[in-house]
Amino acid sequence: MQIYLPIAEVSVNAFLLLGLGGMVGVLSGMFGVGGGFLMTPLLFFIGIPPAVAVATEANQIVASSFSGVLAHLRRKTVDLRMGTVLLVGGLAGAAVGVILFNYLKSLGQVDLLVRLCYVVFLGVIGGMMFFESLRAIRQTRSGKVVAKRKKHNWIHGLPLKMRFRTSGLYISVIPPVLVGVAVGILAAIMGVGGGFIMVPAMIYLLGMPTKVVVGTSLFQIIFVTAFTTMLHATTNFTVDVVLAVLLLVGGVIGAQVGTQIGTRMKAEQLRILLALMVLVVCFKLALDLLLQPSEIYSIAAPGGH
């Protein structure tokens, strides 16, 4: 069933969009990521313009993340205090990101920037997560005790410390705020919740227990992506409501299913699965950039706008 998207100005299959939303919702519930890092490139692949895909996908992430958070709140696996600190940085970062996005849009370079950002970030994060998870699985299988992450590192020497009881941490608020700022900027430019960066940062940088990372990540993602969507809708007019609703319906249902699956799998297995998916999407995006050089640069006609 073909449906016309007024803002994107293309016709797509409604069931395809529902299916994509559902698939990304499952990932959201399983891994604590908004799923935008996979959904936004998938929207590129089916012909949605990058500027519309980024702004609209931020909208869909809000719903699938909200659905996932409700499931985690019932299990008491959300550190609300840590989530709030991350959120402060996230809102500031989102505002900066939308300003940068608008500037690049006025130069006509936003599509290229979004695609390049995806290739770089997905390649780096996916590679690091894959090798770390592989190492952890090998150590577990060989009977070795997996070395626990050091509880004390340079972060613990920073000022402005706060106690996060749910995570069992007493650390400076500076690193979580900076992580939030970085994620907020990415949310605005790439149409992602930022979970694919925030989840590893919370585990390896802040030293949070894996069981509370997923719920806390989703909690922060809800507010940052809602704020980003609002800014894009009011400054760029690139939020396609028809596209958002179809993705939303699939995403909310999928997030509940994903949360159930996630609780039955080991942390190392979850991380390696996520890493593989990240690398596959990165490879496809890089291939598109390399195989279609005609789309990388656009030459404006002299005096034309």
Rg (CA only): 19 Å
Helix content: over 70%
Largest sheet features: 2 strands, antiparallel
Instruction: Report the order of strands and helices.
Output: EEHHHHHEEHHHHH
What strand line-up does the widest sheet have?
A: 1-2
Bulk shape:
globular
* Strand content bin: 5-15%
- The termini sit apart by 36 Å
Domains, number: 1
Can you lay out the helices and strands and say which pair or pack?
Layout: E1 2-5, E2 10-13, H1 14-31, H2 36-45, H3 50-74, H4 80-107, H5 110-141, E3 161-164, E4 169-172, H6 174-190, H7 195-205, H8 210-235, H9 241-262, H10 267-291
Antiparallel strand pairs: 1-2, 3-4
Helix pairs in contact: 1-3, 1-9, 2-3, 2-10, 3-8, 3-9, 4-6, 4-8, 5-10, 6-7, 6-8, 7-8
Summarize the structure.
This protein has 305 residues and is mainly α.
Please name the defining characteristics of this protein:
4 strands, mainly alpha, globular, 5% strand, 70% helix, two-stranded antiparallel ribbon, 305 residues, disordered C terminus, two-stranded antiparallel sheet
Provide a descriptive summary of the structure in words.
The protein has 305 residues and is mainly alpha-helical. It has one domain. Helices cover 70% and strands 5% of the residues. It contains 10 helices and 4 strands. Helix 2 (36-45) packs antiparallel against helix 3. The longest helix has 32 residues, at 110-141. The two termini are 36 Å apart.
